């Protein structure tokens, strides 16, 4: 717990049961008490009943009080079983604070893959180079589910230092990295991805390029035209599916060149069927 939070807790404890307001005047009957974190929830978090402890972690995550966050941080510092660590990590990241990174990095190296995945997913949401370094390390994890979690988190958290490691995983056919790269793609990265034809498994490349097309925030349309043409060069059947999905998801008006080109490619590939 940080010094500032220890001070906060000490002040809170010092005022428990105080009969006066800050003005020194006697408290009125029925005056609302200062909101506190339920002691029984904190106790449950450290208890032997794992189901109750996991539920307590979720309750603390939903509580905006600093004391709730501190209770989660303290429990993780002391160590909790995997069944509790995962919800506790997820709960901690709902109200991120700089001291969290140290604890989460430790759990990113946990023996349990589910715990590692949860910690890496959480770390991607912290604007801290150390946190993002742990996400990149997760992309080299020997367990596929952890690499997938890291790639997904990198995309969602816009962790751009993860781009090159994900490009390496893309070449190995890992779809989670394909989707993560699609979330990170700007026009330059999208062109780099389009140039991977022949270097990356066709179906995995379609996943990346198709996901870029689905992004409502990606543009301008001239760049989407480039992506459509790149998908059109891929012979895997999934290429037609990706273009069809784009056509179906894009309004007919206003007319978009990218949609028109996608329709022409699909018609040509299907031979009028």
What is the secondary structure topology, with strand pairs?
Layout: H1 3-15, H2 39-45, H3 50-62, H4 66-78, H5 82-92, H6 100-107, H7 113-123, H8 129-138, H9 144-156, H10 163-171, H11 175-184, H12 187-194, H13 202-214, H14 221-232, H15 238-249, H16 257-270
Give an overview of the whole structure:
This protein has 273 residues and is mainly α. It has a domain of 73 residues. Helix content is 65%, strand content 0%. It contains 16 helices and no strands. Helix 12 runs parallel beside helix 14. The longest helix is centred in the C-terminal third of the chain and has 14 residues. The N and C termini lie far apart (66 Å). The N terminus is likely disordered.
Produce a short descriptive summary.
By secondary structure, this protein is mainly alpha-helical.
List keywords for this structure.
273 residues
| Largest sheet, strands/sense/barrel | none
Strand fraction equals under 5%
> What is the subunit arrangement here?
single chain
Distance between the termini: 66 Å
Order of helices and strands: HHHHHHHHHHHHHHHH
Q: What is the number of helices?
A: 16
> Percent helix among the residues?
55-70%
Which structural class matches the secondary elements? mainly alpha
Rg, rounded, reads 25 Å
Counted beta strands: 0
Low-confidence stretches: 1-28
Overall mean pLDDT: 89
**Shape designation:** elongated
